[in-house]
What we know:
The complex is a heterodimer.
Chain A: H1 8-21, H2 36-60, H3 66-74, H4 76-108, H5 115-132, H6 134-161, H7 177-194, H8 213-239, H9 241-246, H10 250-256, E1 259-260, E2 264-265, H11 268-297, H12 307-320, H13 325-374
Antiparallel strand pairs in A: 1-2
Helix pairs in contact in A: 1-6, 1-8, 1-11, 2-7, 2-8, 2-13, 3-4, 4-5, 4-11, 4-12, 4-13, 5-6, 5-11, 5-12, 6-11, 7-13, 8-10
Chain B: H1 2-17, E1 30-40, E2 46-53, H2 55-58, E3 73-80, H3 83-89, E4 97-99, E5 105-109, H4 110-115, H5 118-126, E6 135-139, H6 144-149, H7 158-172, H8 181-189, E7 196-204, E8 222-233, E9 236-241, H9 246-252, E10 259-265, E11 268-288, E12 291-307, H10 316-344, H11 351-358, H12 360-366, H13 370-374, E13 379-388
Parallel strand pairs in B: 1-4, 1-5, 5-6, 6-7, 12-13
Antiparallel strand pairs in B: 1-2, 2-3, 7-8, 8-9, 10-11, 11-12
Amino acid sequence: xxxxxxxxxxxxxxxxxxxxxxxxxxxxxxxxxxxxxxxxxxxxxxxxxxxxxxxxxxxxxxxxxxxxxxxxxxxxxxxxxxxxxxxxxxxxxxxxxxxxxxxxxxxxxxxxxxxxxxxxxxxxxxxxxxxxxxxxxxxxxxxxxxxxxxxxxxxxxxxxxxxxxxxxxxxxxxxxxxxxxxxxxxxxxxxxxxxxxxxxxxxxxxxxxxxxxxxxxxxxxxxxxxxxxxxxxxxxxxxxxxxxxxxxxxxxxxxxxxxxxxxxxxxxxxxxxxxxxxxxxxxxxxxxxxxxxxxxxxxxxxxxxxxxxxxxxxxxxxxxxxxxxxxxxxxxxxxxxxxxxxxxxxxxxxxxxxxxxxxxxxxxxxxxxxxxxxx
Amino acid sequence: xxxxxxxxxxxxxxxxxxxxxxxxxxxxxxxxxxxxxxxxxxxxxxxxxxxxxxxxxxxxxxxxxxxxxxxxxxxxxxxxxxxxxxxxxxxxxxxxxxxxxxxxxxxxxxxxxxxxxxxxxxxxxxxxxxxxxxxxxxxxxxxxxxxxxxxxxxxxxxxxxxxxxxxxxxxxxxxxxxxxxxxxxxxxxxxxxxxxxxxxxxxxxxxxxxxxxxxxxxxxxxxxxxxxxxxxxxxxxxxxxxxxxxxxxxxxxxxxxxxxxxxxxxxxxxxxxxxxxxxxxxxxxxxxxxxxxxxxxxxxxxxxxxxxxxxxxxxxxxxxxxxxxxxxxxxxxxxxxxxxxxxxxxxxxxxxxxxxxxxxxxxxxxxxxxxxxxxxxxxxxxxxxxxxxxxxxxxxxxxxxxxxxx
Lengths: 375, 406
């Protein structure tokens, strides 16, 4: 178990990097066509509500992580099974992030390089980072956020300056009706990226000022949600909703349209680096959660020994789960929503919270009656 | 000691991985493609031609025409069932690997344009090396290959020349349109709009255009000239708008930046030249009782650049009267453009798209026969507001009227 601490600012930065890491790259909520911004915002609100569930739950067990207090809520063995499920879930999500960025590199830069090489190199950096400890990742984040923020601002400025935005493309608003909007929000954007914040419950014990954790992460969610809404809006105004829905990496397509003064153009390679950095943080946070969960579950002393086998496992999962990118996206946006995100991000935490609250109340009542008999 | 060895191993592994030379191509193995030409052969195959830069003859001290083999680029072409196949077949004729990252122009031959460009453009849009910000022109009346072969003065590589012509001509004269592959591709797939692309023509002796001698004279035998506007219907080139009729169309599309208007004054035709410095057009769709209508509002700001008749430009009343004349002249041009498009049943202005965006429910009823019924019957009103800013450096013309010939 790590004795390290990260401060509030580092947590905030990690959360922003995590939220925008891959959701800025892959098509999120595109089935809502030009209303994707609305879908993102609704997803943000629902996701924040979900986060309050996670946060409340962890407040019952301060200093403990999600995979550890499951044992204390539903009993030792069911709790351990649940913990294993969550660990596998985090591993799978690490692999998904890895695959996203591997495919991105494959498509835009390394056409002839096998995917396994790209994924392996990226995974090596993640393994190395987690081997060094999450606080190293957090401190790296403090450095990188400056670059990321500048690049994001520059990206927006360049798109606006090149005059390729057409606000008319956002019309007609609500063409598909509220039904479609809610459906998309409730099946896509709530879980990716906002519900994914459940992984931060694995980081709570590390925060040096726990009383600020909730506020910090909610603020991070709000900010990254607004940025994500802005990015998706940008994609629609530049490309049009149909192209965004057709595109594999809408943001990079948008960036490829930038052309200012006939020489500020062809930024895709540059922004690819920016995006990959975000992906690194997302994969690192997930991978840390998986490693930390395993270490606590098996009461291991030296956590960094686990980093290599689990890292290799992630690499294999990232390659084995889908034979092509279309399949990968379908799994991510449809199948895992149904069978992974909804159960593990919504149902289980809410059930756990109910049980925990019930137990707490029972314990308090017992305490009360104990007090009375004492007096 | 073990620590040292381990470090060495790590360093060696890093050197193997970090250079990232998995699929590297050396610069001297690459042929930089500047322009792509797409044609359809008589057999129905795609013919792809590329303009490949001859590095030694473009930059540096090597002078055009000085010494042997001074042409700045070479044109290679191959045929195939698809543009991609043609592209790969070109390796039979070339010692280098074609690199499309710097291509900035796509020329589509008229024969292919007439048959439909969507398939050809799909290959380009999909490719991550090729940039869809490349401009498109249509080779009018000849093949794209012939167009790419013509050597041009001033800009050594003709694709740069064509591109500059497109951009400058659009901003200065407003009769051509600078459109890129992405826009064309998307207009083709949009429902309520027809796309337009500028045409390019070879004027003069076509056969000599490809020879070095073409640029050794002050007046080249063959010249590339932008000519007309090709209108697409369902991805196929339908007809050409002649150059003198293109401005009204482009104006409504808000593609005109600067241009020149001449109006008659006191019975003298073309007497006052008005140069537009800035202009903006807003198109507003309206729906009344299920009947669509369009309101176009044009704002123009400009200077008087020439007067062939005595007119006192210090007089505000005179200025007002000239402004009215200019407004009427613009109004006439735009309404004529709308009328022409209605007759041709091609909605290049994207009025349909305006309704699609602003009146999605009504659009569902209009969509099916927008081009055949609703667009030709559309009620379009044009309103122009022209402002004369200055009249150059002189307020009044010469006192004595000089009778100019004609």
